[in-house]
Amino acid sequence: MLMAGPAALKTLRNHLSDEKIIALWNESSDSMRHEFPRAWSILSPQMRKIEIDHKGESDVRYSLD
Question: What is the pLDDT of residues 12-64, one digit of tens each?
Fold first, then answer.
């Protein structure tokens, strides 16, 4: 499970921009937490990584709700 997070993030970043990944996460994280708790627990720390990667930009598109 520890390795699944970085692998999932790499796959997501190959297909979507960070902006789109964060937007999708912000829209679905609550329902994902209830319906797919294991997936949520893998992806949640990865979303923080994206947010940290863009921290210096002060762009609200990269902030988590």
Answer: 999 999 999 999 999 999 999 999 999 999 999 999 999 999 988 888 888 88
CA dihedral 46, 48, 54, 58 (to 10 degrees): 160
**Angle of helix 37-53 versus helix 4-15 axis, rounded to 10:** 60
- Taking residue 12's Cβ as centre, other Cβ atoms within 10 Å add up to 19
CA distance 32 to 20: 17
Please enumerate in sequence order all residues whose Cβ is within 8 A of that of 33, keeping only pairs 6 or more positions apart, or say none. 40
In order of 37, 56, 58, the CA distances from 29 in angstroms are 10, 24, 22
